[in-house]
């Protein structure tokens, strides 16, 4: 009996392997039992849902050229494994060396979370072109054809590569065995512990992935392993359509395999097809007694005439095209729902389909990745190349960067995992700008990013006008400082580094003078001119006098061009009372010095300067500035400046500038530092502050440092008097998160931000937590999501 069961199992396995129609897999192709080779070129898709109509039309035109350049090309859209191994390895490496227990625990939970979403969002999508080579075509010719196709794809703007052995195995393992959990597939069972000689009795890769059962006894579907599947064939298309990329939704739908076959139509065959269509419709028009048939015939004649005119004008070739759609699910209810979704998509585009009753076996062989069109010309339709290209299924809305971190999902349900430090031709920096109306989720996103930056070992300094990040900062082991209590002071007279490299001659004339000076002391004196100008609008003569006073002050404290700043403590630098004492002393001794002829400033100018600086040096406002820097050397500081917004503009400007000077020093000297400025619109009135921010943005890339800007009043950026200054703030950052903008000039918004109509539609209505995420050339309709364990750290302030 056992012998009989073994024979049955072996026979069933042989039958399954025969259906799979695969003999072996080599480095770049799948080989069939009759000696044919099938090679795949994998395509990295783009998110078509947010691209403009013009860009989409360009992609379709490029695909049409490809389909006419290579004969018998097949297009495949398949389920694929969504591997997060590189992300998990990166997190595990961080966790091993992380000394902050909270951050190490976040790394551990992030690894678990990636496993969870890989299971719940079981698959990604794979897109490919397939080429089947007949047995009589030699390997050199095959390789030449593949290289030619790859070159054509790359020149057309596609990101493509030839599939290698492990990728081919992955395609087959996921299709036949639903194996979405492995990232490596052995040639035989036990490969890691057995020698090839010992493995002869073990199962081969094909036996390992072969479904336990393939049963075609049902009318409407078949059973394949632990899935129920059904295959449909497309049998008719609308004569004309304004829709673009009509198979885009099918291309990225989980559980759907799309297999498109194409082959060329010769010129003689084209003429015959058109002649037959003309005769058939003309006969119906002249001989039918039914009005409906006459109307249809007349309409068809017009279509044929239009088709011939277009073909004559554009010289566009025709293609035979057959499309098979396979749907797979774990049970009959899920399969029924999936069929309903697919039917809705096809009906919306007026596409006719055949459910292949009692023909599911032929349907499976036609739909599977290594299959053949067993129906031959039954479901083939002759279409212009542009119409075949308009099926364009290469769209996927997910994003998984190596070493990236999870920030949410695309509106279509695919995960968005981003590495903000990843560079490419379209990603030249890691700067970020977040724009949107109040209450749309900007602060929530910033809290997610704060966790990511700290987990990535970045120093993080936040300018927090609403005290929204205090609880998160403290939960992550950072330091919160309420800068309006006077407890914490940043000494504005402590020289800080503003630039470490020579400034290019091409530098913008609006760049602050501090960045042009070669030495640290000179850089800081130039900065202090801007700092005190932000505090009060001192005239040029007073600022020149102030510069002289500062030079005298630093000489008194023995701070010169040769000073080794690494040996100085905070208490070794002058403070504002020292400056004020020097100015009053110079004022008292003015006549005595004037007699020597060495004084170049007027006494009245110095007196007015003393009066103007009294408040910040020794008066009521000195509590925020006069003293030695006592900011701890922390890697994560939240500068709370909530009450600063309600104080006078002079004090507010000076506070902003002083904090920015501290941030800039860390930004340029330590590197790997992120500066976050929330409520940026509060700074926009100050052109000098904007120019400093722009200089940070330009110089941060080389130090691994980034600037994160967030603002709600988008219209403030478009004010005529400052729009030329704010444009670079909006255009330079690689990463842009655009939420619903609220009330603003829509056309001006799209013009300044370079947002297309299709992109703006994503954010034209309020939808909390949803935004348009732009990353270089990539676009996503992002739903910002934080895992529960991270959200628990956010606290109760805004963005919770």
Structure summary:
This is Helicase HerA central domain-containing protein. With 800 residues, this protein is an alpha+beta fold.
Describe the protein in words.
This protein has 800 residues and is an alpha+beta fold. It folds into four domains: 16-81 and 122-265 and 317-391, 3-Layer(aba) Sandwich (Vanillyl-alcohol Oxidase, Chain A, domain 3), CATH 3.40.462; 272-313; 420-485 and 634-781, 3-Layer(aba) Sandwich (Rossmann fold); 489-502 and 514-630, Helicase, Ruva Protein, domain 3 (Orthogonal Bundle). It contains 26 helices and 25 strands. The longest helix is centred in the middle third of the chain and has 24 residues, at 291-314.
Radius of gyration: 34 Å
- The number of helices is 26
Question: What do we call the CATH topology of the largest domain?
Answer: Vanillyl-alcohol Oxidase, Chain A, domain 3
List low-confidence stretches: none
Question: What is the name of the CATH architecture of the largest domain?
Answer: 3-Layer(aba) Sandwich
Overall mean pLDDT: 86
Give the end-to-end Cα distance, rounded to a whole number of Å.
66 Å
What composes the largest sheet?
A: 13 strands, antiparallel
Tell me the structural class.
Answer: alpha+beta
Shape: elongated
The amount of helix comes to 40-55%
Strand content: 15-25%
Number of strands: 25
CATH class of the largest domain: Alpha Beta
The domain tally reads 4
Domain Helicase HerA central: 429-585
Organism: [Clostridium] leptum DSM 753
Protein name: Helicase HerA central domain-containing protein
């Amino acid at each position: 009996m056992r012998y009989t069961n073994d024979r049955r199992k072996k026979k069933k396995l042989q039958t399954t392997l025969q259906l799979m129609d695969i003999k072996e897999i080599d480095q770049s192709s799948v080989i069939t039992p009759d000696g044919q080779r099938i090679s795949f070129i994998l395509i990295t898709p783009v998110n078509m849902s947010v691209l403009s109509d013009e860009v989409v039309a360009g992609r379709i035109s490029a695909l049409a050229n490809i389909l006419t350049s290579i004969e018998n090309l097949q297009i495949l859209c398949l389920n694929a494994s969504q591997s997060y191994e590189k992300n998990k390895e990166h997190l595990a490496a961080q966790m091993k060396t992380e000394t902050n227990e909270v951050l190490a625990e976040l790394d551990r939970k992030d690894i678990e979370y990636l496993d969870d979403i890989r299971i719940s969002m079981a698959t990604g999508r794979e897109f490919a072109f397939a080429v089947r080579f007949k047995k009589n075509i030699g390997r050199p010719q095959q390789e030449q054809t593949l290289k030619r196709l790859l070159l054509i794809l790359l020149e057309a703007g596609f990101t493509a590569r030839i599939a290698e052995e492990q990728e081919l195995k992955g395609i087959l393992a996921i299709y036949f065995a639903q194996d979405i959990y492995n990232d490596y597939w052995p040639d035989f069972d036990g490969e890691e512990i057995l020698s090839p000689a010992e493995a002869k009795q073990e199962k081969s890769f094909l036996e390992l992935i072969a479904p336990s059962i393939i049963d075609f006894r049902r009318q409407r579907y078949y059973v394949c392993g632990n899935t129920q599947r059904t295959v449909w064939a497309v049998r008719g298309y609308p004569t004309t359509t304004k829709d673009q990329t009509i198979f885009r939704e099918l291309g990225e739908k989980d559980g759907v395999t799309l297999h498109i076959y194409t082959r060329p139509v010769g010129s003689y065959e084209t003429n015959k097809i058109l002649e037959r269509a003309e005769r058939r419709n003309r006969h119906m028009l002249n001989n039918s007694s039914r009005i409906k048939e006459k109307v249809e015939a007349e309409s068809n004649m017009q279509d044929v005439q239009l088709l011939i005119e277009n073909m004559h004008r554009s010289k566009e070739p025709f293609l035979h095209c057959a499309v098979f759609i396979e749907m797979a699910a774990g049970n009959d209810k899920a399969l029924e729902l999936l069929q309903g979704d697919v039917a809705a998509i096809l009906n919306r585009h007026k596409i006719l389909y055949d459910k292949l009753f009692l023909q599911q076996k032929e349907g499976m062989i036609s739909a599977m990745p290594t299959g053949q069109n067993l129906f031959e010309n039954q479901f083939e339709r002759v279409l212009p190349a542009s119409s075949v290209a308009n099926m364009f299924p290469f769209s996927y809305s997910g994003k998984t960067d190596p070493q990236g971190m999870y920030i949410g999902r695309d509106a279509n349900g695919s995960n968005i995992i981003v590495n903000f430090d990843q560079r490419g031709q379209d990603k030249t920096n890691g700067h970020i700008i977040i724009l949107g109306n109040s209450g749309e989720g900007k602060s929530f996103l910033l809290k997610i990013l704060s966790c990511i930056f700290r987990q990535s070992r970045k120093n993080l300094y936040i300018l927090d006008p609403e005290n929204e990040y205090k609880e998160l900062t403290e939960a992550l082991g950072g330091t919160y400082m309420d800068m309006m209590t006077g407890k914490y002071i940043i000494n504005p007279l402590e020289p800080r580094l503003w630039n470490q490299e020579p400034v290019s001659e091409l530098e913008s004339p609006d760049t602050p003078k501090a960045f042009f000076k070669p030495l640290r002391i000179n850089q800081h004196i130039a900065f202090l001119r801007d700092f005190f100008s932000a505090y009060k609008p001192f005239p040029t003569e007073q600022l020149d006098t102030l510069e002289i006073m500062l030079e005298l002050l630093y000489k008194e404290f023995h701070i010169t061009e040769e000073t080794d700043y690494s040996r100085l403590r905070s208490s070794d630098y002058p403070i504002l009372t020292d400056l004020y004492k020097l100015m009053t002393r110079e004022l008292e001794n003015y006549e005595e010095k004037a007699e020597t002829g060495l004084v170049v400033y007027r006494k009245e100018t110095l007196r007015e300067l003393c009066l103007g600086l009294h408040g910040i040096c020794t008066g009521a406002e000195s509590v925020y500035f006069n003293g030695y820097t006592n900011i701890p050397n922390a890697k994560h500081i939240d500068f709370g400046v909530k009450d600063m917004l309600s104080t006078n503009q002079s004090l507010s400007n000076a506070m902003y500038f002083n904090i920015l000077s501290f941030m800039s020093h860390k930004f340029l000297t330590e590197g790997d530092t992120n500066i976050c400025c929330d409520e940026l619109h509060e700074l926009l009135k100050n052109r000098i502050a904007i120019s400093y921010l722009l200089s940070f943005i330009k110089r941060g890339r080389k130090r691994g440092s980034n600037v994160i800007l967030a603002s709600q009043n988008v219209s403030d950026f478009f004010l005529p008097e400052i729009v030329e200054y704010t444009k670079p703030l909006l255009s330079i950052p690689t990463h842009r998160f655009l939420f619903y903008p609220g009330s603003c000039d829509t056309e001006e918004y799209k013009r300044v931000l370079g947002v297309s109509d299709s992109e703006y539609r994503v954010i034209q209505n309020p939808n909390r937590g949803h935004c348009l995420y732009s990353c270089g050339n990539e676009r996503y309709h992002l739903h910002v999501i934080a895992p529960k364990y991270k959200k628990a750290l956010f606290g109760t302030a805004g963005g919770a």
